Amino acid sequence: MTAIPLDRPAKVAPKRAASPWRIAPWLYLTPAAATLVLWIYWPLLDALRLSFYEWNMLPDSPMTFVGWQNYVNIFALPKFWQALRNTVTYVIGLLPLAVLIPLAIAIYTHDLPARSRNIYRAIIFVPMIIAPVVAAAVWRWLLDPGHGMINETIGLFGFRPVRFLQDPKIAIWTIIVLTGWKLIGFSTLILSAANANINPSLVEAARMDGASRWEIIRDIRLPLLRSTILFLSLMTILLGAQWSFSYIHVLTGGGPLGATTNIFYILWDFGFSTLSVGWSSAAAIILFLGFGALAFVLFRLMDRYSFHDN
Amino acid sequence: MTTDVSLSPALPGVARSRTRRRAQSASRLNTAAGHAVMVLLSIFCLFPVYWMIISSLRPANAIFETSLWPTAASLENYAYALNAIPIGAMLVNTLVVSVLVTVAQLFTGLLAAYAFARWRFPFDKLIYTMIALTWLVPFQVVMIPNYLLVANLGLLDSLAALILPHFAGALAVLLLAQAMRSFPAEVIEAARMDGAKSWRVLWEVITPNLRGTIASLAILIFISTWNEYFWPLLLSRTPENSVIQIGIQMFMTSEGTAWGPLMAASTLASLPILAIYIVLQQQVIQSFMKSGIR
User: Fold this and answer.
1) Position with higher pLDDT, A13 vs A164
2) Range A244-281 burial, b when 16+ CB lie within 10 A, else e
3) What's the gap between Cα A101 and its chain centre?
4) H/E stretch holding A53
5) What's this model's pTM, rounded to 2 decimal places?
6) What is the per-residue pLDDT for B84?
7) Averaged pLDDT for residues B191-196
8) Which residues does chain B have within 8 Å of residue A140's beta carbon, measured at their own beta carbons?
9) CA proximity to A131, closest of B105, B225, B88, B216
10) Contact A125/B2, CB-based, under 8 Å?
11) For the complex shown, is ipTM > 0.95?
């Protein structure tokens, strides 16, 4: 056996370096790459093209080139700015649910016995695997102003029923909490895992030095959890508004009075309610570029500020 | 200081037991409070699912009851739901789509990951990044062009249209590439020495050794495909050719909601996933955690 590598050193090396245009890797890559090009990159370009046209998606209706008009119209639309403001509200509202509360829970339950911790873990993870449309349907039932379980309970205490999804002031917060419902378990698990990875001797050392519980959290746990916290915040900022999409679609349709609409939802609304391909595509491109720039900045920041544990 | 403490088992017995005792009583209090928090959180997370199942069992005249246990359980909501829409066909469709998508993504993912792990080739880093970036493209941005593409292919209202866009997934490629990169190179080399071609190395040497990663990836892909809603919603025309998540939405109309049948359909749509979760709980949690957010 040992003799063989000596026999063919020339053959081992070129495998990696030489013959740059060998065909094998490309063959292996083709099915996946072709799928992603066909269903993601090509459509992205197509959306860019369609954003300069006015068209209602019917095959035999005319496609009119309108240049930048769709973009101009969208920026002049109060609904767009409302959706943008709401998108920011969604992200800010979700951050405590997706990061802060899970962080507190993860640190607080760190010392629970393994057995009960595993049971809790299993339970709080259930919302994560439930289909978004199922979750939306069930919450719609629980929050129903007439007969929903939650309003019945509120009624028992003598309060007036809350119109969770019909009151423009409350509706967006209802959707945020429902989106958070699906996320808490996931974030808690990620943070618990990161927390459990912290070397116990660090904590023990601080305790010996007389550090209080809070000091240990502030000076040891939080700094060591920083990259995980940043990661979850970054995900929430980039994807949070998208996660609420199913709830908006099933529960409020963006209403009342546009109070719960967000940037992802108006794309859907333009595209498939009013069948305005140009508007929807222009909004899609604005959104893609906006979030792309945001992602770029955030990834840069994350690289700079995350803690690299050696 | 740190070195002192890592040797703590060697500390004199008295000092050690005193700090231990103090730590113990503090942690007992902490434990009780921790349990209280976790129980509340568990109720918040589990109650809606419980309520869905309980409501689905309430007969029509008792659907508005708020007792935590149904006074009279019946399956009439299920009978109604099964009559109203072809739930059986929808469940079969969902299963077919989910299984095929899972197999396809694993297959294309293994192939692509192997290319990245085994060879250096021009633009390999760039292509890898481009695959990773697809994950940042929201569904809503590409939905209209994709819809038009499916329409042009004449595939509206077909299961093929639900499968094709998911024939490959960034997540599968990235996770498998990561797993393969940490695969011991000597094993691959040894197989090559024995004259195995790259195709055989992939399927007979690497794949069997990645069973763990493949299994958790399969769980993840299956669950997310089963739960998918918007792409089928765009494409479905007839209930017979659609998936179960679309069935749920059919009981929520602008004229009013049939709560009992809606909860029955929701329960049917969730049962397979819940069953997988109850059996494979640790693996499901692991697979989600490994993958980041989905």
Assistant:
1) A164
2) bbbbbbbbbebebebbbbbbbbbbbbbbbeeebbbbbb
3) 17
4) strand A53-54
5) 0.86
6) 84
7) 77
8) 252, 257
9) B225
10) no
11) no
d(C-alpha A219, C-alpha A180), whole Å? 28
Q: Which residues of B touch A20 (CB under 8 A)?
A: 121-122
pLDDT of residue B50: 93
Q: Which residues of A touch B118 (CB under 8 A)?
A: 25
Q: Which residue has the higher pLDDT, A64 or A127?
A: A127
Q: Which amino acid is at B174?
A: L
Please, are residues A86 and A100 in contact by the beta-carbon 8 Å criterion?
no
Residues from chain A contacting residue B251 (CB–CB below 8 Å):
137
The interface residues of chain A toward chain B in range 241-280, judged by CB-CB distance below 8 A, are 242, 245-246, 249-250, 264, 267-268, 271-272, 277, 280
- pLDDT confidence band for B59 (50 / 70 / 90): confident
- Judge contact between A32 and A39, C-beta under 8 A: no
CB contact under 8 A, A135 and B234: no
Q: What share of chain B is helix, strand, coil (3-state, %, to 5)?
A: 80, 0, 20
Q: Would the CB atoms of A201 and B51 count as touching at under 8 Å?
A: no
pLDDT at A43: 93
On whether any CB of chain B is under 8 Å from the CB of A100, the answer is: no
Q: Which two tokens stand for residue B210?
A: 């990645």
Q: What is the dihedral of CA A87, A89, A95, A96, to 10 degrees?
A: -160
Among A11, A40, A123, A262, pick the best mutation site for testing chain B contact (most B Cβ within 10 A).
A40
How many angstroms separate the CA of residue A2 from the nearest CA in chain B? 11
Please tell me the distance from the alpha carbon of residue A229 to that of residue B170, in angstroms, as a whole number: 24
